[in-house]
Sequence to fold (318 residues):
Amino acid sequence: MSTVQQPDPRDRPARLAVGVVGAGRVGPALAASLQLAGHRPVAVSGVSDASRRRAALLLPDVPLVRPAEVLERSDLVLLTVPDDVLPGLVEGLAETGAVRPGQLLVHTSGRYGTRVLDPALRAGALPLALHPAMTFTGTPVDVQRLAGCSFGVTAPEELRLAAEALVIEMGGEPEWIAEESRPLYHAALALGANHLVTLVAQSMELLRAAGVEAPDRMLGPLLGAALDNALRSGDAALTGPVARGDAGTVAAHVSELRRHAPQAVDGYLAMARATADRALAHGLLKPELAEDLLGVLAGETPGTPGTPGTHGTEGDAG
Fold:
């Protein structure tokens, strides 16, 4: 059963003509989800062949037009362009008179709140920042994934109900983010999601190099369990040689990576240092074992068993 609370009908926005400026992976999916809620996509702009294909797939029969014409036809405009493009786009639309008073102008950037829409606000637009905390593929599966997806929402007080209703109509759950907290909020999501893709891709490459025929099948259960444990228990879920203080094992890892995948060494060392710091802070890594481990991560050669500075440890393998 869905846990998404449906808004009071009195708080639901009227059925709106929806336009999309920027037919990347996000905009067409959001417009398609709004269409399922009864709104009416009327126009979309896109330049590349990939954008046009996405629009045709997710918003069939919706005309492709110039951005100014999207605004002309729409009550609600989704500005789904890259973060660095957004400020200039908003300024340009406002300067050319494309923005209408009373028009809902929604951007989906995680970095920005509503302040980036100030030029349009001065032209009479109603500004909303609705950022879906989801990775998008540009295919119909994205619409399904919006069910239960959190949205980072920033809006003026008088538009909070409208913002909340739009998010819920798309199947999402609103999470209110203060204007000044948007960059930190976005950095947190990028750290968790974007870097995860890089780590998983590197791990699969290394497993292939080690002779594993189906690295995805090997990693799937392991990574699924690790993610579930981390979400449930945070740092208490840390396992592995760094958290145990197995300096010799970590040194062997670094040596092998230098031989077979030197491009992965810096990332391994950076993540191992961060893991060691967190394991120490939470009492998982014993201080007497940390010295050798941190030495390895700094490029030193660990001691051998039975020599001063080398400590035995008990714990799980892995």
Notes: Confidence is low (pLDDT under 50) at residues 1-12, 304-317.
